[in-house]
Amino acid sequence: MGSRRAISSKVAAVAGHIDSNPRRTHRELHSRLQILLTTLGGTSGSSTGDLLDGIAVALADGAVDKMWLALAVLSGQLPDTPTLLRACRQAELDGPLAGLGSCLSGRDDPSGGGGVVRRRVEVLTDRVVVDLHHTSGANFTTGIQRVAREVARRWVTTHDLVLVGWTKDYTALHRLPPVAAGGSRGDNGTLPSAISAADSDRTTIVVPWRCTYVLPELLGEAGRVDRFQCLAHHSGNHSAVIGFDCVPMTTGETSIVGMGADFAHYLAAVAHTERVAAISEAAAMEFRGWRHMLEGAGLAGPAITAVPLPVESPPPSHVAMEMAREQLAVVGMPMVLVVGSHEPRKNHRAVLHAAELLWRDGLTFSLLFVGGNSWNSERFTRALHDLQAAGRPVHAVRALTDDLLRAAYAIAYCTLFPSFNEGFGLPVAESIASGTPVITSNFGSMREIAEPGGALLVDPRDDHDIARALKSLLTDDALRASLARETRARPQRSWEDYAEESWNYLVHGTPPRP
Q1: Confidence of residue 197 (pLDDT cuts 50, 70, 90)
Q2: Which helix or strand (DSSP H or E) is residue 215 part of?
Q3: Which residues on neighbouring strands pair with residue 275, listed in sequence order?
């Protein structure tokens, strides 16, 4: 009886504090209390005291996932782990309302009692939530963005889901329109930002509860990672990610400064997810090695299964073919195509050196690089300019539309992709699917893609090996014809296939058939 009076006394004190707040703040908090209690299965009351009383009872079992929900709804922000654990410990000592004290009083509002409180809150229950924040607003099309867009725009047409992005401060999720999954692209092949219009303090934020949260892109922003980690570990939601690679760990010397720390932070969050759909068997092997290390921290880690990306390239349009011949090719010269950003891992400096060896040997061919969004590419850029100044037929473009890129593959004599490490290596698959032979690295995912035929394998750390392979293709018509036949004999696997297989594994835990 005394315990009940103590709870009632605390309820009255908190209710009195809320009722004394400005009318707007009180109205918003009262609405959130109703939403929270209804979600927790309680009966919504009319007074603030009734609501608080019901919430105190609903949270009395000390369930961490319920406290996560309460903090998210009442504060208008997804909590990070320190905030959640602090609230749980306070609740254990002094009761649930004490654990929620800061967000009930407004002290957790970084705007000083205005911005976050003005956010309306929507709780999503038993839904699939797909986080496409970065890809929806990115103005470039690297492999990760390609994958995220290709699957998301298929998922929105075949499955019931909610697309979400993050607020500017990375504290909360909000809905994204379906166009964010892959609407019409601009002339440079990129998508317009789909989140800027909705991204304000007044937007309606969404809180997933008993949902499945799917991340088809890489997550790097610190605040976003912290809240994602707490969601994956403590919220009671299911969570799964597409695993692209562990390059910042395995070949960190080729990454931009700081990427290793950011990636380690990301992996610390992924450690609490349920499933990782790796984009190749090679990528799955890297993630399994990382998961094995988690045993030292007493963590089991997620289930990891390879769901390989497709080998597909739809035929380019007639217009794109004409544009490619006019704008990308050099008349009278076979064109060698290199697709990818110019970061050191892609090994484009070696490509330039191998090409110069062959030019000095008297071979005639042009070299076209397609790719941007580079870091640590200064040496490549200087070497490229030096060769151009010497009159060599080498050119670089930052980006092409999808149709024009497919045309570039189609008119190329061969492609070069001697990367040091890849989660998959889309240019290898796309070249083969286009019927164009490819020269690529003799290990990892690149070997995995190339082994069924249509490729020459080289040691990417040996410039002369790259040069020998390229010379063979440029001078041996029978070899090139044989490789081209091999590309045409390979079965193609579509993006539709990949989208459905990845959905089934990420959402339902069903691995693809062998």
Answers
A1: very low
A2: strand 212-215
A3: 240, 303
